[in-house]
Amino acid sequence: MKSRRASHQQPPEPPAALLTLRNPEDLRREMQQVQLAIAHRAHELFETRGSQHGHDWDDWFRAESELLRPVSVSMAESNDRISVRADVVGFDETELKVSIEPHRITILGQKKTSGMKAESRTMERTGSDPDQILEVVDLAAEVAPERAVVELQGGVLKFELPTAATIEVAVAPAA
Which of 89, 113, 90, 106 is nearest to 150 (CA)? Predict the structure, then answer.
């Protein structure tokens, strides 16, 4: 009787898609629309409770949970770089906007097929899962945004960020 060995081959990972970085100031303007929608929903929750004061944070966090999909972020730091991973499963590269500043990463995502309908200034939920992402990641060290590599692979947004201190050392003139 021949012994059979089961082969546990992993399916190949999908190819990585490179993302184009956005101007941080432009992305901040787009973030304001999301923040206004959250503020409006929080105010609706406040009014639903009979306009009782003292629960503003509860209303804000509930509005965020209704309108924004949570993003799991992990970070690793070495002497010359910071690596960041953000779970953005369900979003493709055309639905994500990313900016990198020396001390911050901003991720803004909006599904094309929206579960939200915008009518005047109100937003009506038509689905059960939020279809937006708004995540701001503060970085522990200064990075060089112009040297960053950002790619989306298998639902994970990957950032490789060279630290600014390493770049300054590399280009410092020899004494």
Answer: 106
